[in-house]
Fold this protein.
Amino acid sequence: MTNIPAEDRAKPVPPLLQILGGLGLLPFYACAMAEQFGFIHHTIIALNLMVIYGAVVLSFAGAQCWGLAVHAADSKLRTLLYCWGVVPTLLAAVALGIPTAFGLLLLLVAFFGQTLMDYHLAHHHPSLFPFWLLKLRRALALAVLIALGLGLMQNQ
């Protein structure tokens, strides 16, 4: 594993991206809390919406790998990124077609898998995937995993 220089670790996440990322979490938590606040009378509707939104976000996270692949100098890395970029979208499609609880669980596993890929990229290819991006995506992924876990608990 490559040691990330202290100056790279110290670079902050751009504030605009923190705000936009936080806004992107709102639908997850709105779905997770919809019944408690009386917005929806049937939990399954909110949880289905969470699966749909989660599938969209997961596809976006995977698609970013294609954007990184365009800038990758190494052909092996470029191939890995192009191939990996499709995996989250395929998993998202499966999540949409299976029962809600399994869809939530699949999304949870897939977001965790995407986070592992993010760690790999940040530590082995820091010029392509800066550490501040890992900090942002790690925080967002943790929040998504918590929301999906709340959804799973409500589905019982």
Q: What stands out?
A: Residues 43-71 form the longest helix (29 residues).
